[in-house]
Automatic annotation (TrEMBL):
InterPro entries: AB_hydrolase_1, AB_hydrolase_fold, AB_hydrolase_sf, Epox_hydrolase-like. The keyword Hydrolase applies. The keyword Lipoprotein does not apply. It comes from the Bacteria. GO terms for cellular component: membrane. Keywords: Hydrolase. It is an enzyme of class 3 (hydrolase). The lineage of its organism: Bacteria, Bacillati, Actinomycetota, Actinomycetes, Mycobacteriales. Residues 31-272 form the AB hydrolase-1 domain. This is 4,5:9,10-diseco-3-hydroxy-5,9, 17-trioxoandrosta-1(10),2-diene-4-oate hydrolase. It comes from Nocardia cerradoensis. One of its GO terms (molecular function) is 4,5-9,10-diseco-3-hydroxy-5,9,17-trioxoandrosta-1(10),2-diene-4-oate hydrolase activity. Its EC number is 3.7.1.17.
Length: 287
């Protein structure tokens, strides 16, 4: 484990597994806290959570896992990146010998964490999602941000990347040239771009829509009532990727769930409402 130092980036560590090498950052001491990043072009776990790690590492062994296929960990080669991510969580905890953890999951990471809590509730002490749970009720599906994302992976230009990034945030000033350049460089790597297409290309979205209409498939949100662990759902009121009405079914059906909605905030709650979000999550984790 590395000590907390807000001035430097913790070392990127490697964990060999039967599926491939997982890479992660390990900061702080205390009960283990696993942070799972979202999807999208150029995303990494560290880009999602680097600003939050110093806060949580004061009290927890904070583990930021890099999912397979996003350009940092090895690509596990599963048919869909979500399947690789689910394999990665179990392989990661087993590889580090961790029986149970607290989990924070952002967007796709929230869906992955939710599935893990359903499959292995004894391994999850508490669950926090940033979006990443529920289903659209009043808003169109897919949301604007998913449409912009699909446009980028089908036609990966800098302009289409910026259009997608603009849909991610309430405060447009967050989209600096440095951030755009970082995302562009990684998003256009051939393996990373192909991984994004498997999730958000036109064909992938069509398969998702067909699966949602299938009468013999139980939608994921219908299983939320079976999640037994204490769960905090956090959301940006102005999220244009995963609209806030997605939280309503989860709010009503989670046996031990609660919802906190942050104003003037898009999809990146942990970045746009950093201090308020950290305070809310810290109180929940230590309650």
């Amino acid at each position: 484990m590395t000590s907390v130092d807000t001035r430097s980036v913790p070392e990127l560590l490697e964990l060999p597994t039967e599926h491939g090498v997982l890479r992660y950052r390990d900061t702080g001491e205390g009960p283990p806290l696993l942070m799972l990043h979202g999807s999208g072009p150029g995303v990494t776990g560290w880009r999602n959570f680097s600003g939050n790690v110093p806060t949580f590492a004061r009290h927890y062994r904070t583990l930021v896992l890099e999912f397979p296929g996003f350009g940092v960990s090895d690509d596990f080669g599963a048919a869909h990146p979500m399947m690789s991510a689910q394999l990665a969580v179990t392989a990661f905890l087993d590889g580090l010998g961790l029986e149970s953890v607290r989990i924070i999951g952002n967007s796709m990471g929230g869906f992955v964490a939710t599935e893990f809590a359903l499959a292995a509730p004894q391994r999850v002490d508490r669950l926090v999602t940033i979006g990443g749970i529920g289903t659209n009720i009043f808003s169109p599906q897919p949301g604007e941000g998913i449409i912009r994302l699909s446009e980028f992976v089908e036609n990966p230009t800098r302009d289409s990347l910026v259009a997608w990034l603009r849909s991610m945030v309430y405060d447009q000033a967050l989209l600096t040239e440095e951030l755009i350049e970082q995302r562009w460089e990684q998003a256009t790597e051939p393996g990373v771009l192909e991984n994004s297409r498997r999730m958000y290309g036109r064909a992938a979205l069509a398969r998702m829509a067909e699966a949602a209409r299938a009468a013999d498939v139980t939608p994921g949100w219908a299983n939320l009532r079976r999640i037994s662990v204490p769960t905090l759902i956090t959301w940006g009121r102005d999220d244009r990727v995963s609209p806030v009405d997605m939280s309503l079914i989860a709010m009503r059906t989670l046996p031990h769930g609660e919802v906190h909605i942050f104003p003037n905030c898009g999809h990146w709650v942990m970045i746009e409402q950093k201090q308020a979000w950290e305070a809310t999550v810290s109180a929940f984790l230590t309650r």
